[in-house]
Amino acid sequence: MITRYVSRLIIRKLCHIRKISTETDKKIASVGIIVIGDEILRGEVQDTNSAFLAKELHNLGIELKKITVIPDNVNTISEEVIEFSKKYNYVLTTGGIGPTHDDVTFEGVALAFKEPLVLHPDLKQICIQFYKNENPSSMKMAYIPKSSKLHYKTKSGGKLRYPNVSIQNVYMFPGIPELLKKTILEAGSLLFKSDKKFFSKCVYCNLPEYEIVTELQQVVKEFPDVQCGCYPKLFDSSYKAKVTLESCCEELTRKAHARLLELLPAKSVVKDDTND
């Protein structure tokens, strides 16, 4: 009986260790964003999509690794998609989806995966309903890479009017900010998954960053798994530096935050989110 009891304890212990190990070994999902458009490169239109996506993807526990801006060129799009697709779990493209001659994202992505463009019946009907005709330009958005998938579902159980189109790990979004935001807010959590979540804390100081370098270095040394960033604020009477602490472990982030508050000079902290 004693032997069996000890054996059960050992098994439970091993299972517990294995579970912890599994959780620790889980990697953060990575993403790369490809912004497509000559108008962005010429400065005619300001890119707001990548900033919005960075924040939303971060909230989903996905780490943004790189943002690149490229022209409306089929070969350039293809080359960038190939590189990003190999490096990151998810690739998001914005722009280049529409009825005009310079909307060539579908062509570029199809070339990257060596697939032809084919007319999708669902998209054909959507384009007919929207444009009220079947002209070649009206049908342009209905031709997508052959193995593409259409994503209609929203987190509320509804359906997107125009689905997101993806192939392998590449998800193609329109460049119009209002349309992109609508799709991400309604379906982003269904499209992009991560086993991790980011936990962050902020501290606002009335000292410039060069006066708290020693304290920051000490926190970085003691908590190597916590990302520490310091951002100066010029010409602001409320604070002079914002310090952020972030990791995928809530307890570790909390401890690093407490340690920073302990190290900083008395009365140097204007505001912090200890109770958040």
UniProtKB/TrEMBL annotation:
Domain of life of the source: Eukaryota
List all membrane-crossing ranges: none
Domain named MoaB/Mog is located at: 32-194
Q: Which Pfam families match?
A: FLAD1_M, MoCF_biosynth
Tell me which family the UniProt entry assigns to this protein: In the N-terminal section; belongs to the MoaB/Mog family.
Report the protein name in the record. MoaB/Mog domain-containing protein
State the organism of origin: Ceutorhynchus assimilis (cabbage seed weevil)
